[in-house]
Design goal:
With 112 residues, this protein is an alpha/beta fold. The protein has one domain (4-82, 92-105): Transcription Regulator spoIIAA, CATH 3.30.750.24. Helix content is 35%, strand content 26%. The chain contains 3 helices and 7 strands, in the order βββαββαβαβ. The protein has helices at residues 26-39, 57-72, 84-92, and strands spanning 4-8, 12-16, 19-21, 44-48, 52-55, 77-80, 100-102. The strands form 2 sheets. A 5-stranded mixed β-sheet has the order 1-2-4-6-7. β6 (77-80), α3 (84-92) and β7 (100-102) form a beta-alpha-beta unit. α1 (26-39) runs parallel beside α2 (57-72). The chain starts with a strand and ends in a 10-residue tail after the last strand.
Length: 112
């Protein structure tokens, strides 16, 4: 899986990808984002999950690693446009308790 990373105004990093965050793709996806975070000043990291169809445990681990990195940089991590199946996985894992998860249609709300 290739992450399409955009550096937006105000030092916001916006990441789009397509497919599954599983054993075959998650490591490359998260390594690419972590490398980018280390090279660029960042005020916010937004992961657009509109085309992510599945998240395995390795994907959850990667999201948690990104969350920890962004916390040390005082840079919020936001997941956008998460589908119902992926949202269920995030909720079961308790990620909705500490991550901002929102859809474009409910801008500014935290889906708990």
């Amino acid at each position: 899986m290739i992450a399409k990373i955009s550096y937006l105004k105000n030092a916001v990093i916006y990441v789009e990808a397509k497919g599954k965050l599983d054993i075959y793709s998650a490591q490359d996806y998260f390594d690419e984002i972590k490398d980018y975070l280390n090279r660029k000043y960042t005020t916010e990291l937004i992961l657009d999950f509109s085309n992510i169809s599945y998240v395995a445990s390795i994907g959850l681990r990667g999201i948690l690693e990104l969350y920890k990195i962004t916390q040390t940089k005082e840079c919020p991590l936001k997941l956008k446009n998460v589908n119902e199946e992926v949202l269920k996985v995030l909720k079961v894992a308790g990620f909705d308790k500490f991550l901002t998860i929102e859809n474009d249609s409910d801008e500014g709300k935290n889906q708990n």
